[in-house]
Design brief:
This protein is an alpha/beta fold and about 300 residues long. It is built from 14 helices and five strands. The protein has a single domain, classed as Rossmann fold, CATH 3.40.50. The protein has a five-stranded parallel beta sheet, with helices on both faces. Helix 10 crosses helix 14. The radius of gyration is 20 Å and the shape is globular. The N and C termini lie far apart (about 60 Å).
Length: about 300
């Protein structure tokens, strides 16, 4: 079947399932919880999102479901990124779940549901529309958590620049003047939320420093407790292939992830003119220091 024909029939099927979801929600009243724990995971691309999600997943009980890189203010079961979810992260997804049933609102019971956002503004994620349609889109959850992950701007941007220079697509390129402003604006918005200077995320909010998570086992144990999962640190040494793995090392450090120099990526770009623009942004510098302190080597 030609690709345009496949796309047409997929869209036709999804339109039918979306209507079925509406009918299921409005005519079959669901009183019980579908998800024991629901995590809405938010981070900029190259922040270590998949390292954290994999670590959470490895320490969580079945049934567990990830919907990777969903679109803001939409039904996660319709808008998630299929390749990274079904092929790369959770290849047994279709054995555990019927995607068509989930889309139609006939949800299976889950111990954990995670759906993740990348490079999205918080206003577009935490909308009134999403709250009103939440139970229809993903089912009722006993516990709802908002997880905000942040990486220091210097190593984050170095990793994004490496992807740009290797001609691997980022959602926004730091080499493009207009898109650079978007990235910096999003990082500062996340930082203000992280520090409690704004309050877009109204569920149980858990802010995680990737830098500290990577370095400090005690911190990881505290985060696991805060997330409500039994700590084993399983998955910490894994480098997933989602998104191509590490910008610098791909999956070369799989099973030994703690050996990667993820807090020294900035050294590769310290004399790059686009990278140096970070230091001219006083607000960004102040926010970074408030969250991460002084990054080693950048005193």
């Amino acid at each position: 079947m030609a690709r345009p024909t496949k796309i047409f029939f997929r869209r036709l099927r999804d339109a039918f399932l979306y209507s079925a979801n509406f009918a299921t929600h409005h005519f079959l009243i669901r009183r019980s919880f579908v998800n024991m724990r629901e995590m809405r995971f938010i981070g900029l691309q190259r922040s270590g999102n998949h390292a954290l999600i994999n670590w959470i997943f490895n320490q969580s009980k079945e049934k567990k479901c990830l919907l990777n890189w969903v679109q803001a203010d939409s039904n996660p079961f319709f808008s998630f990124h299929r390749k990274s979810t079904l092929r790369e992260f959770q290849p047994d997804f279709t054995k555990k779940f019927s995607l068509n049933l989930e889309k139609s609102g006939i949800f299976s019971k889950k111990e954990l549901l995670i759906y993740s956002y990348e490079d999205e503004s918080l206003e577009k994620i935490a909308t009134q529309n999403f709250e009103e349609k939440h139970d229809m889109w993903v089912g009722r959850s006993k516990i709802r958590q908002d997880i905000l992950l942040m990486r220091d701007p210097f190593n984050l941007i170095a990793s994004r620049l490496k992807r740009d220079d290797d001609k691997v697509e980022n959602r926004y390129s730091f080499r493009d003047d207009s898109e650079r402003k978007i990235i910096i604006g999003l990082w500062k918005q996340y930082a203000r939320e992280f520090l409690g200077l704004s309050n877009h995320l109204l569920q149980d909010k858990i802010c995680i420093s990737y830098n500290k998570w990577f370095l400090d086992r005690d911190y990881r144990e505290k985060i696991a407790s805060r997330l409500g999962i039994e700590f084993s640190d399983s998955g910490m040494e894994t480098v997933t292939g989602v998104g191509g793995g590490s910008s610098f090392d791909s999956i070369g450090y799989d099973k030994k992830a703690s050996e990667m120099k993820v807090l020294e990526r900035w050294r590769h770009y310290e004399n790059d003119k686009d990278f140096r623009m970070l230091f001219a942004d006083r607000e960004l510098m102040d926010l970074s220091k408030a969250i991460f302190g002084t990054v080693p080597g950048l005193e």
